[in-house]
Amino acid sequence: MRKIIIDTDIGVDDAFALAYAARHMDILGICAVFGNVTVDQAVKNARLFCAKMAIHTGVYRGCSRPLALDPTPVSGKIHGKDGLGDAFDNPYDASAQDGIRFIIDSVKKNPGEITLVAIGPLTNIATAQNLAPEIIPLVREVVIMGGAFGTHGHAGNVTPHCEFNIWKDPHAADQVLSSALPVVMLPLDVTHEVLVTGEEIRATGQPVLTAISRGYLDYSLKSEGFEGMALHDTLTLSYLINPGWFKVSTSPVRVVTEGLSRGQTLRRATAFATRFDPFVGCGVQKICLGVEAAPLKAHFLQSLGGM
Question: The pTM is what?
Answer without folding.
Answer: 0.96
